[in-house]
Design brief:
Helix content is 62%, strand content 2%. Strands 1-2 form a two-stranded antiparallel ribbon. The protein is globular. The protein is built from 7 helices and 2 strands; from the N terminus they run αααβααβαα. By secondary structure, the protein is mainly alpha-helical. It has helices spanning 8-25, 31-47, 52-72, 90-102, 105-121, 152-168, 171-179, and strands at 83-84, 138-139.
């Protein structure tokens, strides 16, 4: 509402719940909650900018995602956690946004690397988009769940790939968005 609504009344209405949620967002322990908050912050900045507190929260949450990535990732598993679970594309999407809008090259590089790997992991042998199933997910070194995918995976992957395209202008990302 804040970033995209054309109605000032909706924008004004949305600021209060956004500010309340923002105040507790740094207490959250879920990387997906951090990523969702970062995506929300970037929507907020579509309309409003220069808010020091919002910038501080963005920096804190961006650094947390970078930190968990650096502690967990390897060449063979360039990911934030020891498992691919649900709403996976939100994690790289948040870092791509933060990297783009703050000039944080590390965040951008990690976001693009993780998204490239995720796109490959979520591709069937025939080349179709096949997100990780939610009945067991995909632990590092384990078996990948092939069924019970969640619809949120598609929208998340499309959004992340389109943001990657906006940043890089690489047509590969438009193709990945279409695949999803």
């Amino acid at each position: 509402c804040i970033g995209r609504s054309k109605r000032r009344s909706l924008q004004a209405w949305a600021i209060q719940p956004f500010e309340c949620a923002l105040m507790t967002s740094t207490e959250l322990t879920s990387p997906r909650a951090w990523a969702g908050t970062l995506i929300g912050i970037h929507e907020y900045f579509r309309r409003l900018s220069g808010d020091r507190l919002v910038n501080q929260v963005r920096e804190t949450l961006t650094n947390r995602l970078i930190d968990i990535y650096q502690r967990s990732a390897s060449d063979a598993w360039p990911w934030f956690e020891e498992i691919l679970s649900y709403d996976n594309a939100r994690l790289p999407h948040a870092l791509i946004l933060s990297g783009r809008w703050t000039g944080n090259a590390v965040a951008l590089e990690i976001g693009l690397r993780a998204l490239r790997w995720l796109a490959g992991m979520q591709r069937s042998p025939r080349g179709h988009f096949r997100p990780i199933g939610s009945n067991g997910f995909y632990p590092r070194g384990g078996e990948r769940a092939r069924f019970d995918q969640q619809p949120v995976e598609v929208q998340g992957m499309v959004s992340a790939c389109l943001e990657a395209y906006r940043v890089t202008n690489d047509p590969r990302w438009r193709k990945e968005a279409r695949r999803a």
